[in-house]
C-alpha cells in the first residue's frame, strides 16, 4: 500500500518546490524596487501558504492509504474523509487568492476612473461572489459531516449535492480563468507597439492557458473519482498559476526600468486606459528650469501615482505606446519641479503633464 502512487506524491513536492523560488523572487523584486509589499503580494503569499497546507493534507491522506482505497481500514477511511473539506477549502483558496492578485495587478495598470478600471472592479466583485458560493457549498453540501464516512445507506451524503459542487467549481474556476486571461490580452492587442513587444507581453498572460488545461484535466479525473490523480493535477494547477502570477514582477526585475521607492517620487510611469470615446493627445509645453507654462494641458483623465509601481511590470520606458484611434494607450506623466526665489526661502513647485 505504501508504494501506491509514490511517483505522484513526488510530483506534489516538485510542484510546490518549483513555485517557491518564483514567489521569493517576486517578493525580492518588490522590496528591492519599492521597499514594501502590495496587497497582491500578500495574496500570492497566502496562495503559497494554502498550497503548502494542501500538500500536507494530501501527504497525510496518502499515509492513511489514499493510494489504494480498496485496502483502507474503516478507521483510516474516516480519517481520509475528514480531510476532504479542509483540503478542498485550501485548494479553492489558493486558486482564488491568485485570481484576486492578478485582477488587482491588472486594475492598477488601468487609468483611474476609466472604463477598464470599472471592468476590473466588476471582476473583483464577481470573484468574491464565486468564492463565497464555492466556500459555503463545500462546507454545507454534506452536513452533518459524519455522513461522509457513514456506512448506513440512509445516512449518507446526497449524490446530487456532490454533482452540484462539482459543476459549480468547474464552471466558476475555468470561466474565471478564461476571463482573467482574456482581459489583459485584449488590452495589449489594442496598444500601438512593436509586434515583437506585443507578442512578448501577451504571451506572458497567455500562459494562463496551461492553468485552464490543468483545470479541465482535473475536472475529468474528479468526475471519474480518480482521487490520487485529482490531487496531483490540483497541485500542478495551483503551482502553474502561482508561477504565472509572479512573472510580471520578474519581468520588471529582468528588463529594469525606472525605480521609484516612494509614491511621491518624481519620474515617469505608464497607465493603460480604455474609454468609450475617441481621444487625441494634447501636448503640454514644458518650459526651461526657472519658469513654467501655466497653460500646460493634459488629455483625458489625470493619471494617478501607484505606490508600488507595478505598472512597470507590463512595459518598460523603452516601450512607450501612443494612443490609437480607439482611445487605448499608455499615459505618460512627466513632472518637472521648478524652484522660485532664494533657496533660503520656502520653495514653490509647479508641474506640467503631457500625454503621449
UniProtKB/TrEMBL annotation:
Note whether Transmembrane helix occurs among the keywords. yes
Segment forming the signal sequence: none
Keyword Protein biosynthesis among record annotations: no
Q: Which InterPro entries match?
A: Rhodopsin_dom_fungi, SAT4-like
Offer one Pfam family short name for this entry: Fung_rhodopsin
- Residue intervals passing through the bilayer: 6-29, 41-60, 80-106, 118-140, 164-187, 199-221, 227-250
Q: Which GO terms describe its cellular component?
A: membrane
In the bilayer, the protein is annotated as:
Multi-pass membrane protein
Q: Which UniProt keywords apply?
A: Membrane, Transmembrane, Transmembrane helix
Q: Which domain of life is it from?
A: Eukaryota
Compartmental location: Membrane
- Boundaries of each Rhodopsin domain copy? 25-254
Q: Where is this region: Disordered?
A: 285-315
**Polar residues bias locations:** 285-313
What protein family does this chain belong to?
Belongs to the SAT4 family.
> What name does the UniProt record give this protein?
Rhodopsin domain-containing protein
